Amino acid sequence: MADGVIASAPGKLMLFGEHAVVYDYPCIVTAVDQRMMVEVKLRKDKRLVIRTNQPGMSRYERQVDELGQGIIPKQAKFSEMLVSNFYSKFKVENGLEIRTDCQFSSKFGFGSSAAVTAALAMGLYELFSIKASKPELFDLCYKTVLDVQGVGSGFDVASAIWGGTIYYIKGGKKIEAINCGDYPLVVGYTGIKADTPTLIKQVAKLKKRNSEKVSKIFTEIKKITEKARTALEERDDKELGGLMSLNQLLLDELGVSSNRLDELISASCKNGAWGAKLSGAGGGDCMIALAGEEKKKKVENGIRMKQGEVLKVKHCAEGVRLEKRK
Ligand code: PMV
Fold first, then answer.
1. Which residue is closest in CA terms to ligand 1's atom 2?
2. Which of 29, 47, 53, 321 shows the greatest Cβ crowding within 10 Å of its Cβ?
């Protein structure tokens, strides 16, 4: 057994298929090169101690035999539930010290919860010298996400584990790497933090009221996602951009876009992007645009002119990995 390990997992950006993926339609997601770092160490006592660099909680502590019970601060929920699920699965009861350090702000919607869950899972398997395949890591992490938030397709967990750009169907029914290399993505942050479970519930309500309309929208989104997969493989960036804008129209019909997102998306298109859309649940967080090298700067300036923050991230990053073993 190791004394301590450090593992890391990437953040993510949804490229196509958000919301529809919650209802078993496919999506495409890419991992970004900003990572969540997690250090795990054994303790001599029977306490779980979590230290984070997140706002609002620097240190949290509790007894190992009380894991998952009572009120848990939101910054510790995913870590504590993951430890609880891991400990029940492998009948472990050691004290544990966890330190998380995120290279990106949790406000961007890059999936810090999924990334911390994936990195911590790998850290625990390594710490206790238990071998785990990617699907095994996924099952433990996805169960944890559902235990904490009750809803979600698990696309963010798959992205944190597999990395790259993947084609994904809910619950890990399909996780397929898309061989696409580097495509010219621009990322703009609206300045507004979105609440994913609220937006998922909003779409569920709409689906209940108007099931036929929403099913039609989802079927169209599926067609776009399938075409986008081919466009990515063939590196037809113009086609890909056009598909982004079509996907955006449908997300708008679902009612999940917002004025801020619309402003940044339209600024991108006016400044020469091939297409643009929101990324993730909507309501805020980030938008993405696809623009040729000669237009990229113009598109970025267009986003800034509308008070958007351009985030310099590389996509197709590596999935969860072991950084250090002591
Ligand atoms: O806001 P994000 O980046 O967590 O993305 C949510 C994407 C949804 O499809 C709306 C939900 C999900 O779990 O797939």
1. 280
2. 29
* Closest ligand 1 atom to Cα of 13: 3
Report, as residue numbers or ranges, the catalytic residues: 156
Q: In this predicted model, what pLDDT tens digit does every residue of 145-182 receive, in sequence order?
A: 999 999 899 999 999 999 999 999 999 999 999 999 88
Residue 37 three-state SS: strand
SS3 68: coil
For the question of whether the overall pTM of this predicted structure is more than 0.85, the answer is yes
Transcribe 208-249 into DSSP letters.
HH-HHHHHHHHHHHHHHHHHHHHHHHHT-HHHHHHHHHHHHH
How wide is the angle at C-alpha 159 spanned by C-alphas 11 and 89, nearest 5°?
105
For the cut 90, the answer to whether the pLDDT of residue 325 exceeds it is no
Residue closest via CA to ligand 1's atom 14 equals: 153
Atom of ligand 1 nearest to the CA of 199: 10
